[in-house]
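pasting for the record
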Amino acid sequence: MATARVRQILSQVLDQHRDGTTLPGVLCELCARQLLVTGVGLALFTDAGHEGVVAATDQTAMTLEELQFTSGEGPCVDASRGGRPVLQPDLATTAPRRWPGFASGAAEAGIAAVFAFPLQVGWVRVGVLDLYRDTTGSLDGEDLTEALAFADAALALLLDLQELTPSAQDMHPNLADPVGRRPEIHQATGMIAVQAAVGLAEALVLLRARAFGSGRTVAEIAREVVNRTLRFDNGDEQT
């Protein structure tokens, strides 16, 4: 059952929603202002893994969300897999060994701390809310309580939006951009599976590895695969 604070957050999100914005985007902006963090990102997760970024407050947050999707590693990935918050108050100390790719990207983006909160119902994974900060330090008791309330509000919002879609296979418009690129990624994964004679899971790993190794996004590489300007034959990428 939603607490009074969660209901208040959702009410504020609805009040501040305007044309040209999405409800998840408004929630992220509100969360960033309330907790005085550098940025906030919201991503969808399922049992199959990272499904895509729903919203981000700025380009830095979006870059780090995309980096975790591309590399398959990072605080939000571990938070979803473990089903509990991953709190990293000093990335320079803890992240290089745990998530080398993410640590490098975070340092380049000037992010010093990350706090990732899984969104799930029982054992069913829905998403992750990520808080980014450009200074080190833990969330104090009040801020941690507030962050957990925003995570609960984000979960409620994602579930409510999906209930409004006409089909379980569809994505609500408030969730479709930039997640709308998922069909292209899924199509590319299928094509790579055929070209490289591997399963879909391994095909997605190949796609992510190519993107990470070239410093590009998964969506960019997927587009080349779908457009047939890039192939993955016998496990080797060819242009």
